[in-house]
Amino acid sequence: MFDYSIIWFGIIVFSTLMYIVMDGFDLGIGILFPFNKDPDHRDMMVNTVAPVWDGNETWLVLGGAGLYGAFPLAYSVIADALTIPLTAMLIGLIFRGVAFEFRFKAIEVHRPFWDKSFVAGSILATFSQGIAVGTMLNGFEVTGREYTGSALSWLAPFPLFCGLGLVIAYALLGCTWLIMKTENDLHSKMSALATPLVIALLVVVGIISIWTPLSHGDIAARWFTTPNVFLFMPVPILVLLCSWGIMRGVKRNAHYSPFLLTLGLVFLGFSGLGISIWPNIIPPSISIWQAASPPQSQAFMLVGSLFIIPVILMYTAWSYYVFRGKIKVDAGYH
């Protein structure tokens, strides 16, 4: 018999990772706006994601719907505990989306307002997502099947620091995306910015990697007891190798390897999160099986997902293929 809980956990993890990768670099572009004041360059930055950005959030919807249907207990606890950051994230995404469209249609005097909205929405959405991740690592207070913690449990140093870390990670994703998609002056500016962002991200990852096991004995035991310490040792080693590869690629004026290696960093960071909380979907103690809906419900949803997910993947792959290549200075809004 299939273990539908594991299958659905895999679908939600895959959807979340796809969202982080795809929406991460266009949120990163908004975060990078303050580093580039040139209006033409800003137009080019937005044009690199104009044809694909609105489809990226399909994965967020799929992951949220999957969590609601397959793990309703987890959905209710997370919604209660993270009401404020999740609402802030949605407000940020709305501002980012509206500003994305309106900045091209606004008269010149109004363009700075929409640029600022684009920056603010991107940073707010990213920071809120990082807070949610940090709060999850800290764990939730659950009694029976109800969240009994504070509505402000996310307002703690560790989640706030994770929010800052995700802002840096998305900025690096956006930076290396622009290295891949642009040329000449903008390409040079982003290449110069990539190495400081890599160093900043390594510092943040190092602090989180020390802070997390010191604060949570169960996570420390998962990472640093034998044989796990040997099984998981490749994760930090690969993080260092990817970071070195990004900086080396930028130095030799590479166009594609910095972005691909940044995707590797994101995958490794996501893997580290998974290792830290598995098999709990509501840390520190409620597993995916305890939070799952009945197998009949999971099986019914799975039938629809087997049709929907391939369609989303084909649409996504086709859109990125059609709009592949470098963006030119005179390229218009798609």
| Structural class estimated from helices and strands | mainly alpha
**Which architecture name does CATH use?**
Up-down Bundle
- Give the termini separation: 48 Å
Count of extended strands:
4
Q: Sketch the major β-sheet.
A: 2 strands, antiparallel
Descriptive keywords:
334 residues; mainly alpha; Formate dehydrogenase/DMSO reductase fold; two-stranded antiparallel ribbon; 4 strands; 76% helix; globular
Written overview of the protein:
With 334 residues, the protein is mainly α. It has one domain: Formate dehydrogenase/DMSO reductase fold (Up-down Bundle), CATH 1.20.1630. Helix content is 76%, strand content 3%. It contains 14 helices and four strands. The strands form two sheets. It has a two-stranded antiparallel ribbon with strand order 1-2. A two-stranded antiparallel ribbon has the order 3-4. The protein is globular, with a radius of gyration of 20 Å. The protein starts with a helix and ends in a 12-residue tail after the last helix. The mean pLDDT is 86.
In brief:
The strands form 2 sheets. A two-stranded antiparallel sheet has the order 1-2. Strands 3-4 form a two-stranded antiparallel sheet. The mean pLDDT is 86. With 334 residues, it is mainly α.
Topology:
Elements lengths: L3 H29 L6 H9 L5 H4 L1 H13 L1 H10 L1 H23 L5 H28 L3 E2 L2 E2 L9 H25 L2 H32 L1 H8 L3 H5 L1 H18 L5 H21 L2 E3 L3 E2 L7 H28 L12
Antiparallel strand pairs: 1-2, 3-4
